[in-house]
């Protein structure tokens, strides 16, 4: 009896995995290119939803962010994609390029890809 209940529990626990195989993808399609003073410092290809830390920028670095994906991204002035104290977050819509003069640590939040 105990073995039958254990088998039933395992069967019920795995049922949602079988029922919902078609969940939407959370990876963006395309590339995000980050340049600092004209040199490529980071390239994210088909990035998954989440937070990505950028290399630290020296004093008054001219940074170009080119979002060639199908997903919106947000540049945060701090690590861990948290709101910064000195600079508001910058939205990067799909297919856009933003140029900023930055100093210090920054991170990029990749939002969920469209379904």
Structure description:
The protein has 115 residues and is α+β, with helices and mostly antiparallel strands. It is built from one helix and eight strands; from the N terminus they run αββββββββ. The strands form two sheets. Strands 2-1-4-7 form a four-stranded antiparallel sheet, with no helix packed on it. Strands 3-8-5-6 form a four-stranded antiparallel sheet, with no helix packed on it.
Characterize this entry briefly:
With 115 residues, this protein is of the alpha+beta class. It is built from one helix and eight strands, in the order αββββββββ.
Topology overview:
Blueprint: H1 2-19, E1 30-36, E2 39-45, E3 50-53, E4 57-69, E5 73-76, E6 90-92, E7 96-104, E8 107-110
Antiparallel strand pairs: 1-2, 1-4, 3-8, 4-7, 5-6, 5-8
Parts with pLDDT < 50 across at least 5 consecutive residues:
15-23
Which range best describes the helical content: under 10%, 10-25%, 25-40%, 40-55%, 55-70% or over 70%? 10-25%
Mean pLDDT: 82
DSSP helical segment count: 1
What would you call the structural class?
Answer: alpha+beta
Total DSSP E strands: 8
Main beta sheet strand tally, sense and closure: 4 strands, antiparallel
| Number of discrete domains | 1
Q: Distance between the terminal alpha carbons, to the nearest Å?
A: 45 Å
**Rg, alpha carbons:** 20 Å
Strand order of the largest sheet: 2-1-4-7
Q: Give the CA-based shape.
A: globular
What proportion of the residues form beta strands (DSSP E)? 35-45%
Pattern of helices and strands: HEEEEEEEE
Keywords: Signal
Signal peptide: 1-27
Protein name: Secreted protein
Organism: Sphaerisporangium aureirubrum
């Amino acid at each position: 009896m105990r073995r039958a209940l254990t088998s039933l529990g395992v069967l019920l626990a795995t049922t949602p995995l079988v029922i919902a195989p078609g969940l939407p993808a959370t990876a963006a399609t395309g590339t995000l290119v980050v340049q600092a003073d004209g040199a490529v410092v980071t390239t994210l290809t088909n990035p998954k939803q989440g937070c990505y830390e950028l290399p630290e920028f020296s004093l008054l670095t001219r940074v170009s962010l080119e979002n060639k994906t199908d997903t919106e991204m947000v540049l945060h002035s701090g690590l861990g994609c948290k709101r910064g104290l000195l600079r508001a977050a910058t939205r990067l819509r799909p297919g856009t390029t933003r140029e900023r003069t930055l100093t210090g640590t920054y991170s990029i939040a990749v939002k969920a890809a469209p379904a």
